[in-house]
Amino acid sequence: MQWCDEAIVLSLRSHGETAGILELLTREHGRHLGVVHGSASSRVRSTLQPGNRLNVTWRARVPEHLGVLAVEPSCTRAARFFEKRNSLVALNAAIAIAAAVLPEREPHATAYQDTEVLIDAIPGGDILDWGPLFVYWELGLLNELGFGLDLSVCAVTGVSDDLIYVSPRSGRAVSREAGEQYRDRLLSLPQFLIGGATENAPMTDISAGLQLSGHFLQRWVLQPCGKEIPFARKRLADLAGREIAQMTVSE
Predict the structure, then answer these.
(1) Residues 6+ apart with CB under 8 A from 250
(2) Which helix (H) or strand (E) holds 81?
(3) CB of 12 within 8 A of CB of 48?
(4) For residue 238, how far is the Cα from the chain centroid?
(5) Within 10 Å of residue 61's Cβ, how many Cβ atoms?
(6) I want to staple 209 with a disulfide (CB 3.0 to 4.6 A). Which of 135, 143, 167, 196 is the partner?
(7) What pTM, to 2 d.p., does this model score?
(8) DSSP codes of every residue in 120-155
């Protein structure tokens, strides 16, 4: 059995003396693993860095086998993430979330394309630039997996105005008036998620958005599988919190 596809590198771990097991997010075949012979060499290993895009060919005698991967570099962009510390934090968070929540060998072409867009956007700016996109990306993963949030109308009254909360249980929006007496138990709804401009989203909204998407990834996707939010993703949330603290001090 054989197929060819485009893929984003998620991780590489050693396998024997000279080979490695490569974890990929592919366009047509979902999250997929395979053995890469010769991956211990510095030349090949540099190609297999997380975030790089490859053209890959997977071969196995039967579909259930781990299989062997032949790889060719398509876009070796991993080095760009070392120019800014925050960019590397964001890349590691995205890679960790994709590996944790996407089922193995289950095609999710939209998730692949959205991940490509996110990874291309991160090195060009800082968290104020790509933070809202990261939140949209995680909410898109939830939607792909059948756990989309409903932020269109208030879950209590049905109105579409003044939505500022989200129920942590149902994932539905709640208006200011309906949620006032329960505000300490509700999640904040960033305004950029209901039509606001992402270009000018405040850091507090980005932080709230990361808390929102992280909460439902944990509750609906990871927890039922006995998993926790990856440490790399927690570092991204911590980064957002530090950015808010620095802004407060500077004011």
Answers:
(1) none
(2) none
(3) yes
(4) 16
(5) 8
(6) 135
(7) 0.95
(8) HHGGGS-HHHHHHHHHHHHHHHHHHTT---B-SS-T
Q: Are 27 and 53 in contact (CB under 8 A)?
A: no
198, two tokens: 């992402």
- Residue 8 near residue 53 (C-beta atoms within 8 A): yes
Give 78's DSSP letter: G
Q: Sheet of 187-188: strands edge to edge? A: 173-175, 163-166, 187-188
Counting every residue, how long is the chain?
251
- Quote the Cα angle for 128-129-134, to 5°: 90
Mean pLDDT of 84-95: 95
Per residue in 166-176, pLDDT tens?
A: 999 999 999 99
Count of beta carbons in the 10 Å neighbourhood of residue 248: 9
Collapsing DSSP to helix, strand or coil, 167 comes out as: coil
- Tell me the per-residue pLDDT of 34-46, one tens digit each, with 9 for 90 and over: 999 999 888 888 9
Q: How far, in Å, CA of 183 to CA of 166, rounded?
A: 10
Alpha-carbon distance 128 to 161, whole Å?
26
Give the CATH number of domain 80-151+189-250.
Answer: 1.20.1440
Domain extent listing, the chain: 2-76, 80-151+189-250
CB 224, CB 157: distance < 8 Å: no
For 2-76, CATH gives: 2.40.50.140
3-class state of residue 145 by DSSP: coil
In the block, tokens 């790399």 appear at: 232
Report the alpha-carbon distance of residue 152 to residue 149 in Å, rounded. Answer: 9
CA angle, residues 22, 24, 26, in degrees to nearest 5? 145
What is the rounded distance in angstroms from the CA atom of residue 240 to the CA atom of residue 236?
6
